[in-house]
Design goal:
Elements (H helix, E strand, L loop, with lengths): L2 H9 L2 H20 L5 H25 L8 H15 L5 H25 L5 H22 L5 H37 L4
Helix pairs in contact: 1-7, 2-3, 2-7, 3-4, 4-5, 5-6, 6-7
Length: 189
């Protein structure tokens, strides 16, 4: 696969990153403005987000021609989302540890995916920043799950809003890059 084909393939995935950014942004706003809302609502929102993110991740990985281990992070995301939706009666501590573990796995997956890409492009930096942010928040949730619900809700809100900005930025960057490649392929446009 040539570098142009690799970049062109990424250019077609921009919508999935923007949608993921919007979904995680909504999660962040809910967590920020309703921190003392019932845990059931927060668990449901996080579970729904993880299911949607897992589906988007599987679709993106499939479209990018991924195989085997490339599907690990989206598959884990789907499993954690299902656990949160179908067993919401778990304690807050277990919920936070599960969510923290997912965030670490997701973050490491994003960093590893960024390392597979060639060069030091903005896409690589965005993906690395997304991965690092997720992994740090995941570690905080795993190491200190006994913190108050409001504090945890604010941590989730902050992380979600940062991730939303990064996902949307990456998606829009990929869109511009794809459009630029298309214009180079078809100079008459």
């Amino acid at each position: 696969m040539s570098a142009g084909e690799e970049i062109g393939g990424r250019g077609k995935l921009w919508r999935s990153y923007v949608v993921r950014g919007l979904l995680v942004g909504l999660l962040g706003l809910f967590a920020l403005f309703w921190p003392s809302a019932s845990l059931a609502i927060l668990v449901t929102l996080v579970g729904l987000f993880l299911l949607a993110d897992g589906v988007m991740g599987c679709i993106g990985t499939f479209r990018a021609g991924g195989r085997g281990v490339d599907f690990l992070q989206p598959a884990v995301t789907l499993v954690v989302g299902a656990i949160l939706l179908f067993w919401p009666g778990t304690t807050l501590r277990v919920l936070l540890i599960i969510f923290g573990a997912w965030a670490v796995i997701f973050g490491v997956g994003q960093v590893l995916a960024a390392r597979k890409l060639s060069g030091q492009s903005d896409e690589v930096r965005f993906m690395t920043a997304i991965g690092a942010t997720s992994a740090i928040v995941g570690l905080v949730l795993i190491l200190w799950p006994g913190s108050g619900v409001v504090a945890i809700s604010w941590v989730i809100a902050l992380a979600a809003l940062v991730l939303a900005a990064l996902f949307i930025g990456l998606g829009l960057r990929m869109r511009r890059l794809g459009a630029r490649l298309e214009s180079l392929r078809d100079p008459g446009r």
